[in-house]
């Protein structure tokens, strides 16, 4: 795997592979780091690589020309390498993405600085924008280092045993179980007995249960997409888990109006057309008035919430009922008030 890192401050990145497992990977030729100084590609007399933003505003913007030229130089070395721009507005970097990127033979990682990069450079080099989290860093270098580190350890041969990343957090969609090493008792705290038993099946089962319990407690959203077997679901339900409860984005739909044929069918057809999953539903008729409440999973919906709510309202008008989509958070904050 070759990482070409385009940066205004390549010295920030240069030493990041001089330690631990990644150092060994570099020494054995499995991973190569190529730091490229964007400024060296500037065609301006004073090697300028940034300028004031058009339209005004604070800060500076990295100019397109040096970036496109620096990227072309990386492409000369690795023609097929995808270009990734580390950016807070990019798609979230996940273990899945790390696995996907580890299958490439080279990556070009573009680090921004200041207010960011002239959009035309990003269009010209066809950059995929990737974010390492919902926060803003001063520059893309730390983000590039995070990406390189997690991708490198997935390159075959980098970790001692091929299976050592198999049970890492996120690899199977769950968080990792707790780990222990010697001594067996530390400040009065004992290692769980099962880990000392030498009974591999029991150890595996204990670890799986621990993973499930920790994921339910800390990141229930992950359970919605994890590959869970029957025994996993049984154990989770003992812990109080119900399918859909970890969904990060839930909506509440209410439909009220004079009862008539086909209301449920029309609403359900609308929801399935928008890729919305119904998690729970309750419907009744009170003295000729139709009332329905649904809890829906909005996680995989691409439309904006307001747009969806408006489309549902319009559908309600067509049917002759009042149909409302509200964010679950509204009810949570009402409860707090
Ligand atoms: C100060 S930030 C620019 C932020 C930009 N004005 C915005 O609001 O999107 C400078 C650079 O840091 C990098 N950066 C900042 N936060 C990041 C994040 N969460 N993930 C990846 N890169 C990030 C990007 O390369 C970005 O161009």
Report what the structure shows:
The protein has 337 residues and is an alpha/beta fold. The chain folds into 3 domains: 2-152, SPOUT methyltransferase, trefoil knot domain (Alpha/beta knot); 167-247, tRNA(m1g37)methyltransferase, domain 2 (Trp Operon Repressor, Chain A, Orthogonal Bundle); 250-334, Alpha-Beta Plaits (2-Layer Sandwich), CATH 3.30.70. It contains 12 helices and 13 strands. The strands form 4 sheets. The protein has a 5-stranded parallel beta sheet. A 4-stranded antiparallel beta sheet has the order 11-12-10-13. A two-stranded antiparallel ribbon has the order 3-4. Strand 5 (83-92), helix 4 and strand 6 form a beta-alpha-beta unit. Helix 3 packs parallel to helix 5 and helix 4 (95-102) packs across helix 6 (141-152). It is flat, with a radius of gyration of 26 Å. The chain starts with a strand and ends with a helix. S-adenosylmethionine is lined by residues 86-89, 111-113, 115-117, 131-133, 135-140, 143.
